[in-house]
Design a protein that fits this description.
Largest sheet: 3 strands, mixed
Protein name: Olfactory receptor
Number of domains: 1
Strand order of the largest sheet: 2-1-3
Number of helices: 12
Membrane topology: Multi-pass membrane protein
GO cellular component, one term: plasma membrane
CATH topology: Rhopdopsin 7-helix transmembrane proteins
Subcellular location: Cell membrane
Keywords: Cell membrane, Disulfide bond, G-protein coupled receptor, Glycoprotein, Membrane, Olfaction, Receptor, Sensory transduction, Transducer, Transmembrane, Transmembrane helix
Length: 315
């Protein structure tokens, strides 16, 4: 740090990690295994959707895109976590911190928007099945996917640019395991009321999005319960059960992380909530989408079988 200049902090130190001598390696290998599982699981789902023609429909297209985003969502934070667990200096540059926040939250925003699109897709499919093929055309699906990505990545830019212009004159310790808005803003040499304003804006965005998705699924459940045949109800519910589970997991962890306002937790629980949000929730998504769906399981088996045949033919 340099004296005499308000914007003096160029490096931040994470305080949420155990020191190497205090068992950092004990956390490194389980986290590495989880990261490999998340990436390989989501890659399997993505390629299964792309390569199996039976899955070339709007629902599976959105699942494939969501899995692709989930892979990069975890890549925005976990590799740096792994590095910090085995490093003596658990630091990140100011620019690196801003980039990590931008990509992590932009990908998260894109996923949240895509989950809204997926809820609307299931709403149309179950509540208006006769018009579904005419409404959810391939062109509209591509537009909704592209729109989700563009919105997710553009909506955060003004906030990141604003934070980059704030003065950071010390201290430089981030009490978290990755760069996030509130821990970083607490270090800025500026009016603390901006943190409350930022919290309110984020909370409103989370509540509005989750409300839209919740209303869609409530309406879907009402329609499903009105189906006369047991087999029809079971089939209709099976098409959206995984979506509901992922929605609850995603927004449940988001709510734990960002809908607490002035509530404070001990450093241990802060880290647990951060891990739930950034690691454990993404861990279960490939499991939910692959184990709860027969078509997806068949497509993944077909993917492995075709890879096995390709390897044998190359010998």
């Amino acid at each position: 740090m340099e004296n005499g200049n308000l914007s003096t902090v160029t490096v931040f130190v994470f305080t949420g990690f155990p020191q190497l001598q205090n068992g950092g390696l004990l956390y490194f290998f389980p986290l590495l295994f989880i990261y490999i599982f998340i990436v390989s699981g989501n890659l399997m789902i993505f390629f299964a959707v792309r390569l199996d023609t039976r899955l070339h429909n709007p629902m599976y297209n959105f699942i494939g895109i969501f899995s692709f985003l989930e892979m990069w969502y975890t890549t925005a934070t976990i590799p740096k976590m792994l590095s910090n667990l085995i490093s003596e200096e658990k630091t990140i540059s100011f620019v690196g911190c801003l980039l990590q926040m931008y990509f992590f939250h932009s990908l998260g925003n894109t996923e949240g928007t895509l989950l809204t699109v997926m809820a609307i897709d299931r709403y149309v499919a179950i509540c208006n099945p006769l018009r579904y093929p005419n409404i959810m055309t391939p062109r509209l699906c591509a537009q909704l996917t592209a729109g989700s990505c563009i919105f997710g990545f553009l909506i955060l830019l003004p906030e990141i640019v604003w934070i980059s212009a704030l003065p950071f004159c010390g201290p430089n310790q981030i009490h978290q395991i990755f760069c996030d808005f509130t821990p970083l803003l607490k270090l800025a040499c500026t009016d603390a009321s901006v943190i409350l304003v930022q919290d309110v804006i984020h909370a409103l965005a989370i509540l509005i999005t989750s409300l839209i998705i919740s209303l869609s699924y409530i309406r879907i459940i009402v329609v499903i319960l009105g189906i006369s045949s047991t087999e029809g109800r079971k089939k209709a519910f099976s098409t959206c059960a995984a979506h509901i589970a992922v929605f609850l997991l995603f927004f449940g962890s988001v709510a734990l992380m960002y809908l607490r306002f002035s509530a404070t937790y001990t450093p241990f629980w802060d880290n647990v909530i951060a891990l739930t949000f950034s690691v454990f929730a993404p861990l279960f998504n490939p499991i939910i989408y692959s184990l709860r769906n027969k078509d997806m399981k068949d497509a993944i088996k077909k993917l492995f079988c075709s890879q096995k045949v390709f390897n044998e033919s190359g010998r």
